[in-house]
Amino acid sequence: MNAGLFRSSTSGRVLRAGTGEAAYWAFVPNPLAPRLEFNADLVASLSDADRALGELSGLGRTLANPHLLIGPFIRREAVLSSRIEGTQANAAELYAYEAGQLALPGLKPGRESDAGEVLNYVRALEYGLERIEALPASLRLIRELHARLMQGVRGAEAFPGEFRTTQNWIGPPGCTLSQADFVPPPPPEMRQALAAFESYLHSDDPLPPLVRLALIHYQFEAIHPFVDGNGRIGRLLLSILLVHWRLLPLPLLYLSAYFERHRPAYYELLLAVSQRGAWGEWLAFFLAGVADQSHDAIGRARRLQDLQADWHRRLTGSRTSSLVLRLADSLFLSPVLTIPEAQRRLSVTYRSAQLNVDKLVMSGVLKPAGEARYGKTFYAPAILDIVEATDGE
């Protein structure tokens, strides 16, 4: 790491670590919160973000059955947050892997390991949203999330649930410590930084909550306390705190789509805070992401609501049972199923499940995957289209 790029920073200090030829420079962030200047542009960005988030929060409180929408939102976040780290699995592959069915049209072979990593993200996020009701935001919670994120997948050898005891660094593949773009604190300073980070999580900082979230995200990335999985845990923590701090009634806002779409700027602005204390630029970017993704979530939620209403109109008739409507609604939780899975969801006989699946196929809600006569897999393309649509579509 080029220490000269960080020497004038107001957000932390450079530290010489190691000895002799193994010596290197690392960056230790100052404890939060920094002194911030709220100019007119930043105040306007905060106002836009607050307004958009408030609109999303209001929508969340009026949803008739919000839990049908949470599943698609969480899985979209898992796909995009993992993609930032190089994972290639898409939403269809995630759903297929989760359902134990890997024969959907367009699924690429060899993506099972990627899909497994993304599914771990889903499980870690769902765990965190439930766990934080009993355990405050803390280093213990962060370790528990990491253990679930890294369990049984690539990187599982990187001490799941344990903070690192060795030095890590960030830079191009194959680079050394001296060539790295950024070297986070050595383990002793890392432990001190984590203690201060936890104290800040528990503090009553009067800064606006969205500003605090931006500071927390930067700080976690700068500390980089795990051997692997830091980026995903940092983004996952944002989603949990948005609900825990009552900024949203439900987990409907995720920033990974925005970060992934602006990936170079995302990394450059985080680095700029470390190198020159560029808090204003990072905050403006972060708040723009909150506004952008709030609007996207509102549009996506409404499309899912409209789709559910359209299905109910199509399926409601004198000879339609409540079972087929229940099965259609269950597709929002998982749009991939087999006849035995439909049987489990409805608690009916195999024949009854088959008849209800056939009704959904005839109505265009479901499509069969492949030409197999037995053990068929079915999927709901309309849900996958909404989940996988790029922002703004």
Fill in the keyword field for this structure.
393 residues, mainly alpha, Fic-like fold, Arc Repressor Mutant, subunit A, 2 domains, three-stranded antiparallel sheet, two-stranded antiparallel sheet, 56% helix, 5% strand
Task: Lay out the secondary structure.
Elements: E1 12-17, E2 24-29, H1 40-62, H2 67-84, H3 91-99, H4 112-131, H5 139-149, H6 187-201, H7 209-223, H8 230-244, H9 256-261, H10 263-276, H11 279-315, H12 322-330, E3 336-338, H13 339-346, H14 350-362, E4 367-369, E5 377-379, H15 381-388
Helix pairs in contact: 1-11, 2-4, 3-4, 4-5, 4-8, 5-8, 6-7, 7-8, 7-11, 10-11, 11-12, 11-15, 12-14, 13-14
CATH topology of the largest domain: the name is: Fic-like fold
Which bin fits the share of residues in helices?
55-70%
Give average pLDDT, whole number: 90
How many DSSP E strands?
Answer: 5
Radius of gyration: 23 Å
User: What is the tally of helical segments?
Assistant: 15
- Whole-number tally of structural domains: 2
- State the secondary-structure class: mainly alpha
What's the N-to-C terminus distance? 41 Å
Q: Assign the CATH class of the largest domain.
A: Mainly Alpha
Low-confidence stretches: none
Name the CATH superfamily assignment of the largest domain. Fido-like domain
Q: What is the name of the CATH architecture of the largest domain?
A: Orthogonal Bundle
Determine the oligomeric state from the structure: single chain
> Main sheet?
3 strands, antiparallel
Shape: elongated
Strand content: 5-15%
Secondary-structure element series: EEHHHHHHHHHHHHEHHEEH
Main-sheet strand order equals: 3-5-4
